[in-house]
Write a structure and sequence with these properties.
α3 (about 30-40) runs parallel beside α4 and α4 runs parallel beside α5 (about 155-170). Helices cover about 25% and strands about 15% of the residues. By secondary structure, it is α/β, with parallel strands linked by helices. The longest helix has 19 residues, at about 80-100. The two termini are about 25 Å apart. α4 (about 80-100) links the parallel β1 (about 65-70) and β2 (about 105-110). It has 6 helices and 9 strands, in the order αααβαββββαββββα.
Amino acid sequence: MVQEPQQQLAHSATTLRSRIRSLAFKAAAPIGALALTIGAFALAPTGSEAGTADHLMCGFKVAPRTQTVSIDPYLASAGVTYDDVVAAMAPWNNLYQRYHGFPIFAPHYGEWQDADILLTAQGSSRTWVHTSCAPGYVQRGNNHSIVFLGAQDAWRNQTMLSHELGHTLGFADHGNGDASTGHIGYKPCGNYIGVMSYCTSPQSWFLDFNVAGSLVDGQLIRDYWLP
């Protein structure tokens, strides 16, 4: 979820729960294992671009290299661990490695301001992502994005970590109805099946094979740096 600060903090827990109701976790293979399993299937040429630009918050895309992530060592209040963050990076890394030859995320072990992305449990009681797509965003050091993991959302932070990391790559929220208030570049679910959609359950995140009439994460990542 990407929101401007003043709008984000005004959201109620009821609204938050309704937006992720379709993401209620069911018995299924872990996301990382699912990504590895479906990785055995190749995307066939589509004859057209996947339309990645149509699924971004703004014109922002990260540079074509691994993005370093400074991980707050004090994440317990947000209901996640360091290992949870690394696990959430894995399915993104698998697809970027496959299509571009390098992982897109890696932990940063130096000063937080030297990382491309800051992930922290401090600064906000709610979970949201602040990026350069937001009006008035003030970049500190090299941080082009800040992932705030709030204690009030500790009950869902582990499940949604991969989704929040997607915002740091510029990908927008996708959902049904008019829920664009407080979101930047909000998109309808449409034919997109993937991690950035509130209409998609985790079992269908990071698909990497053709689904008739649909756009999946493998296609978006494959075509990410196309003009």
